[in-house]
Automatic annotation (TrEMBL):
Pfam families the record matches: DAGAT
EC number, UniProt record: 2.3.1.-
UniProt family annotation: Belongs to the diacylglycerol acyltransferase family.
CDD domains (UniProt xref): LPLAT_MGAT-like
Keywords: Acyltransferase, Endoplasmic reticulum, Lipid biosynthesis, Lipid metabolism, Membrane, Transferase, Transmembrane, Transmembrane helix
Single annotated GO MF: long-chain-alcohol O-fatty-acyltransferase activity
Cellular location(s): Endoplasmic reticulum membrane
InterPro entries xrefs: DAGAT
Organism of origin: Camelus dromedarius
Name of the protein: Acyltransferase
GO biological process, one term: lipid metabolic process
Bilayer topology: Multi-pass membrane protein
Length: 334
């Protein structure tokens, strides 16, 4: 079993603060907020996977990535073509350049419990997004009701989050170019599928994002975050249980599920709400160009939805053995 360094208390506090620090008043996207040092501490909380070592060409890097060596880690966007250029201090790699001349609609998979990969990579500069994808402005869509809460709305917008409402996404994809809008396609329902050693996505019936991309001629970008479902354990309830009915009722009121999850505590071996200090690796796939069709038929939507699912499946299969999944593990679509 792989052993990782024990995060220090300060890094642990930084991980806890990101969903709680809603006191900043910025009102609009803020480079200052996106560059807070708190995000780098969150990045360093998650270790670089020793699974990268066999793929590196440099023997010096192989020894540096020995599990017995204590190194700061990250959530990173990784490229199978550039792995041999990877160093412990380089945070983001890519599989394909994104041209600032186009707009992009990015599928973020899986949801996980708190979507650490999506937040750390696309809502902060902790992993150097703007340097790796110059000219691209990333956004991550989240529940609309968050933007009705004073202070919270300003905090989220400062980081580059936007409402998942149709009007907000239409606006970003129709004003200028170089916008990358990420949508956690599985939604809050996928949070209940978040369990270690699972790769199940709610995607088959979720086709609205494809229709939106077609209407704007935006390129579809598949992504998959390995390790997102590994950082928390979750208590699952039978569909006939009172607790499951409560979870469904809770979602009807608040828009998301009340998940009962747990991780580690401040002391090694203890249980708490901190995530396990395990690798989180986000792989960004090659953009899928789409034609611009103002009123796409259902057949056209189905066609490009199938192409997207196929691209996502191939992306997963190409990288799964490098990042903790077995050769026989399958990506399941519900």
């Amino acid at each position: 079993m792989l052993s990782f360094k024990q995060p220090n208390h300060f890094q642990s506090l930084m991980v806890l603060q990101w969903p709680l620090s809603y006191l900043i008043l910025c009102g609009r996207r803020s480079a200052w907020v996106r560059n807070w040092c708190a995000w780098t501490h969150i990045r360093d909380y998650f270790p670089i996977s020793p699974l990268l070592a066999p793929l590196l060409k440099s023997s010096a890097l192989e020894s540096a990535l020995n599990p017995e060596v204590s190194l700061p880690l990250l959530s990173c966007v990784i490229s199978r073509h550039d792995l041999w250029h990877f160093s412990p201090w380089l945070q983001i790699l890519k599989t394909k350049d994104l041209s600032p001349e186009h707009n992009y609609l990015m599928g973020v998979h899986p949801h996980g419990i708190l979507t650490f990969g999506g937040v750390c990579n696309f809502c902060t500069e902790a992993t150097g997004f703007s340097k790796i994808f110059p000219g691209i402005t990333p956004y991550l869509a989240t529940l609309s009701w968050f933007f009705k809460v004073p202070f919270l709305r300003d905090y989220l917008m400062a980081k580059g989050l936007c409402s998942v409402s149709r009007s907000a996404i239409d606006y970003l994809l129709s004003h200028g170019t170089g916008n990358l809008v990420g949508i956690v396609v599985g939604g809050v329902g996928e949070a209940l599928q978040s369990m270690p050693n699972t790769t199940t996505l709610i995607l088959r019936k979720h086709k609205g994002f494809v229709r939106t991309a077609l209407q704007h001629g935006a390129h579809l970008v598949p992504t998959f975050t390995f390790g997102e479902t590994e950082v928390y354990d979750q208590v699952l309830y039978h569909k006939d249980s009172c607790m499951y009915k409560f979870q469904r009722h809770f979602r009807q009121i608040f828009g998301f599920y009340f998940c009962v999850f747990y991780g580690r505590g401040f002391r090694q071996g203890s249980t708490g709400l901190l995530p396990y200090s395990l690798p989180i690796v986000t792989v960004v796939g090659e953009p899928l160009p789409l034609p611009k069709i103002e009123k796409p038929s259902q057949e056209v939507v189905d066609k490009y939805h199938a192409l997207y699912m196929d691209a996502l499946h191939k992306l997963f299969d190409q990288h799964k053995t490098q990042y903790g999944c077995s050769e026989t593990q399958k990506l399941l679509f519900l």
